[in-house]
Amino acid sequence: MRDEPEGNEYLSLQNIVTSDMPTQQFSQRVKEYLQQPVESRLQRLASTPDELGQVIKGHSDVTLSHRPGPKKWSAKEVVCHLRDIEELVIMRFHLMLVADEPRVFVAGVQPSDPGKWGIDDQVPCPSDPDRWAEERQYQRNDAFLALSAFCRRRREVITLFRRLTPEQWQRGCVFPDDRRLTFEGWTAAMAAHDDGHLAQLQHALASAALISEGTSQARRS
User: Fold this and answer.
1) Reported confidence tier of residue 5, pLDDT bands at 50, 70, 90
2) The CATH number of the domain where 129 resides is what?
3) Considering the domain boundaries, does residue 220 fall inside one?
4) Axis crossing angle, helix 75-98 with helix 143-163, rounded to the nearest 10
5) Has residue 4 been placed in a domain?
6) E strands, 66-132, where?
7) Domains: count for the chain
8) Residue 20: is its pLDDT beyond 50?
9) How far apart are CA 111 and CA 105, in angstroms?
10) Model confidence at 14: pLDDT above 90
11) Strands, DSSP E only, in 86-191?
12) Measured torsion, CA atoms of residues 79, 82, 83, 89, in degrees rounded to the nearest 10
């Protein structure tokens, strides 16, 4: 494990790529959240489901399925991603409570020693969001059902967080690249992750609106 100052969550969260948010911007958002009380971070996490619901409310499946560009996710795919990530994180958090310093997969983070994790060309890293989107056929999912599942899972995560003792908040896990992060650090990472994907979702819908407007103008001309 890397020798990092205890509690220096910001260093552990640098250079993580999330959604379309640039790494530097994500790191800055994490730094800002780490300066806030934990309760403020929990309130931010609790507000995400309603924010998502407001953004996608009233949109058709065609609009929610629109991809703004090659290899870019639609709004529906963003919601499905958040749903599945929430399942991953709560399993990770349960593990952090019963095991000391467990090593865990983190989406977007490649192992520093793939062979040690049993990963190679034939057995790829399982925490690959793009692979999930394709194999779980996100584009065929119902965005509102996916949102409902995300809401339930996020409530479970918040409930688990609020039950942690002061000592448990300092329990940590180790990333595939040997960085360590505590429960406190995860609240900041999740909040920044939410911000990035909300912006990504809004961008996808804005792109869909431009396409629709252009089509309408072409029909009128």
Assistant:
1) very low
2) 1.20.120.450
3) no
4) 30
5) no
6) none
7) 1
8) yes
9) 8
10) no
11) 172-174, 180-182
12) 180
Tokens of 87: 């399942």
The partner residues of 180 in beta bridges, in order of sequence, read 174
Indicate whether 221 belongs to any domain: no
Cβ neighbours, 10 Å, residue 71: 6
Q: What's the token pair of residue 36? A: 């806030």
Letter for the amino acid at 6? E
pLDDT at 160 over 60: yes
Q: State how far Cα 221 lies from the chain centre.
A: 43
C-alpha 148/C-alpha 146 separation (Å) is 5
Q: State which residues form the domain around 113.
A: 9-210
Dihedral pair phi/psi, residue 174, rounded to 5°: -120, 130
Instruction: Round to whole Å and give the CA distance between 108 and 14.
Output: 12
- The answer to whether the CB of 83 falls within 8 A of the CB of 105 is no
CA distance 168 to 184: 10
pLDDT tens per residue across span 21-65: 667 788 899 999 999 999 999 999 999 999 999 999 999 999 999
Tens digit of each residue's pLDDT (9 = 90 or more) over 67-96: 999 989 999 999 999 999 999 999 999 999
pLDDT of residue 26: 87
User: What CA–CA distance (Å, rounded) separates 92 from 87?
Assistant: 9
Contact criterion met (CB below 8 Å) for 176 and 112: yes
Tell me the pLDDT band of 3, cut-offs 50, 70 and 90: very low
Domain assignment of residue 133, yes or no = yes
pLDDT at 27: 86
* Number of other residues whose CB lies within 10 A of the CB of residue 186: 23
